Amino acid sequence: AHRAMPHRLYTLVFPMDSARSRVLLGMKKRGFGSGKLNGFGGKVEPAETVEQGAIRELAEESGLVAAAAARCGLLLFYFEDSPVAMEVHVFQAREYSGVPVETDEMRPEWFGVDSMPFDRMWADDHIWWPLMMRGDLFVGRFWFKADQVTITRSELDRVDSL
Ligand code: 6OG
Questions:
Q1: How much is the ipTM here?
Q2: How would residue 3 be classed by pLDDT, with cut points 50, 70 and 90?
């Protein structure tokens, strides 16, 4: 039944430093997920590709300007109180110009990839993060209660392409 649900498209971008030992997260200051640390992203607009949307949201929310973003995974979120599933395309940005700036939406901060602040992130993140760090492409599906904290069911698969 879930598979027939309408989906809404989102992006989520994790900027990495050149050694890939640190990742830039932003503390979301307003809207969905406010108070949590996350990558940078948002809704994809009708006239753009998913990658273009990822690059645009990265710039709007962090100040970093990337020429490209690398696909890492696909996350599907189902909230028990929402009839629309979230389809979130996950990217890493490894080359960009600019320096992180605080925006109305996000307060950016670097974290070591081996000491991630999962207790301040969405509850799904610690589940798929190790796959992404290994360089595996992944597809995950997570069913959340309306409290936006409790995961009642999850699936995570490594895939060969996205
Ligand atoms: P705006 O409302 O800011 O787009 N997002 C999630 N990210 C993670 N890691 N876990 C979740 O678990 C998420 N749900 C949504 C996708 C929302 C942003 O938040 C991400 C977008 O980057 C449920 O336009």
A1: 0.98
A2: low
Tell me the best of 38, 45, 131, 150 to mutate to test the pocket of ligand 1, counting ligand atoms within 8 Å of each CB and taking the most: 38
Instruction: Kindly report the protein residue whose alpha carbon is nearest to atom 10 of ligand 1.
Output: 122
Place of tokens 């979130």: 88
Which pLDDT value is given to residue 4? 81
Euclidean distance between the first and the last CA atom of the chain, given in angstroms as a whole number: 23
d(CA 117, CA 54): 23
Identify the H or E element spanning 60: helix 50-62
Round to whole Å and give the CA distance between 114 and 126.
11
If one residue of 8, 29, 32 were mutated to test the ligand 1 pocket, choosing by the most ligand atoms within 8 A of its CB, it would be: 32
Output the CA 12–ligand 1 centroid distance in Å.
Answer: 7
